[in-house]
Amino acid sequence: MQLRKATITEVPVIWEILQYAIAQRKADGSQQWQDGYPNENSIRNDIYNGSAYVLEDNGTILLYAAVIFDKEPAYENIEGKWLTEGDYMVLHRVAASPLAKGKGIATQFFQIIEDLCVQNNVFSIKIDTNFDNVPMLKIIDRLGYTYCGEVYFRGSARKAFEKVLSGK
């Protein structure tokens, strides 16, 4: 498994993965990503901002995510309290390929991301998800994230979580 930055030529493959994830959310009865977001422009913006990452195995992209080493403005107005106040990494638009289903790829991704944080001397990961995104809620619970409150994106409340990392 290799985590690397995505390239503009990979937008079509990444968009297919996101479309699969959007359909999965709908099939699960979730309202997340059912309003035209994310879309191909979201991916292009992530690439231009340097935050588009893919997890690949033998040249096959299995997962896409925006990995952001910067402040998330929506996180500044949390209804609740973050565990830490310093630097953090934000994860958005985490989506796995159908080829990854049932293989623990998302869990592996989160573990690789933790190492990336520590390598960059960042010891906090913050993430949010819809209240009804059960698969993501299970992953972040299993990996030891702490529920911190609610944040708002595009007018909707989302559950916000943080994990504090130790300097490995």
TrEMBL record:
Q: Name one GO molecular function term.
A: acyltransferase activity, transferring groups other than amino-acyl groups
Among Pfam families, the record links this protein to: Acetyltransf_1
Every copy of the N-acetyltransferase domain together lies at 1-168
Residues spanning the membrane: none
- Alphabetical list of SUPFAM superfamilies matching this protein: Acyl-CoA N-acyltransferases (Nat)
Instruction: State the InterPro entries in the record.
Output: Acyl_CoA_acyltransferase (IPR016181), GNAT_dom (IPR000182)
PROSITE patterns the UniProt entry points to: GNAT (PS51186)
Official protein name in the record: GNAT family N-acetyltransferase
Q: What is the native source organism of this protein?
A: Taishania pollutisoli
